[in-house]
Amino acid sequence: MSVQYSRLQLPTEYEFRWEGESHYLAYHDLVLQDGEMEVLGERPIQGRDLRDQMTYVPQGQTITGWAKPADRLNAFTVVCFDPTTMEEELQVEFGTVEPRPHIYFQDQELGTTMRKLGRLMADLERPAAKVYAEAVGLTAALEMVRLQSENALRVVKPGELSQSQRRLVLDYIEANLASDIGLDDLAAVAVMTRFHFSRAFKATFGEPPYKFVIRRRIERARKMLAETRLSVADIAAACGFSNGSQFTRTFRDTVGVPPLLFRKSV
């Protein structure tokens, strides 16, 4: 088994390729402006925000791709392991699992192990003992086999926002509902172009960003109308509407009644 930790801050687009006699497991701390990866012979998978995502490729297969990195310090951690040797040493039945490649998947337990391994490898001031790093890497390999046997991999569907992108975008929307949220702002949070973000957002949430933001503003307004005695004008401002008339019109179109009538009904 071998473990590798790499950091890179490249200003330009680059290509990559991996093939070998061992199994390949990578944990990504990468943010890309654009890029894709493919298992040779299969459909390419597009990548953007790859933080907390992993890639697994069984031995005998090849991955290729290209990436245009965002302007940040990117990193990845790789574990390569020989299942035959591991079976002999640990008496683990690797032969009972049909290995299949998985590009950009997530798993909480395996992700935690891979992040720990990356921190160990990255700490040059206090380098971990080789046997400890190998033990953590071995744990990651065993967890990967567990996921394969349980068929429990959660793959990010092509064209959708990743889990980390969803979290960042939703947190940004909630924190800025009172402000003027633009498409450029949301695309920047997800580190995507406006065009790709709009398509990915709709594929993920089932509606365009504009409609989603309006719906969240109305949901907040309903809560404030029911639980506070603030004026309609104050609620409109707190929910990001430019004026009371715009708020009243949008609220009526969405809820079916004006804000004051809704307040009376609750």
Shape: elongated
Mean pLDDT: 86
Major sheet details: 6 strands, antiparallel
Using the 3D structure, state the CATH architecture of the largest domain: Sandwich
Please tell me how large the radius of gyration is: 24 Å
SSE topology string: EEEEEEEEHEHHEHHHHHHH
Number of domain units = 2
Structural class: alpha+beta
How many strand units? 10
Helix content: 40-55%
CATH topology of the largest domain: Jelly Rolls
Give the low-pLDDT segments: none
Strand order of the largest sheet: 1-8-3-6-9-10
CATH class of the largest domain: Mainly Beta
Give the SSE layout:
Blueprint: E1 2-8, E2 14-19, E3 23-29, E4 32-39, E5 45-46, E6 53-57, E7 62-69, E8 74-81, H1 83-90, E9 102-106, H2 108-122, H3 130-150, E10 154-155, H4 163-175, H5 183-189, H6 194-205, H7 209-227, H8 232-238, H9 244-255, H10 259-265
Walkthrough of the structure:
- It is a single chain.
- The chain has a six-stranded antiparallel β-sheet.
- With 266 residues, it is an alpha+beta fold.
- The mean pLDDT is 86.
- A hairpin with a 5-residue loop joins strand 4 and strand 5.
- It has helices at residues 83-90, 108-122, 130-150, 163-175, 183-189, 194-205, 209-227, 232-238, 244-255, 259-265, and strands spanning 2-8, 14-19, 23-29, 32-39, 45-46, 53-57, 62-69, 74-81, 102-106, 154-155.
- It has two domains: 2-155, Jelly Rolls (Sandwich), CATH 2.60.120; 163-265, Homeodomain-like (Arc Repressor Mutant, subunit A).
- The longest helix has 21 residues, at 130-150.
- The chain has ten helices and ten strands.
- The chain is elongated, with a radius of gyration of 24 Å.
- Helix content is 45%, strand content 22%.
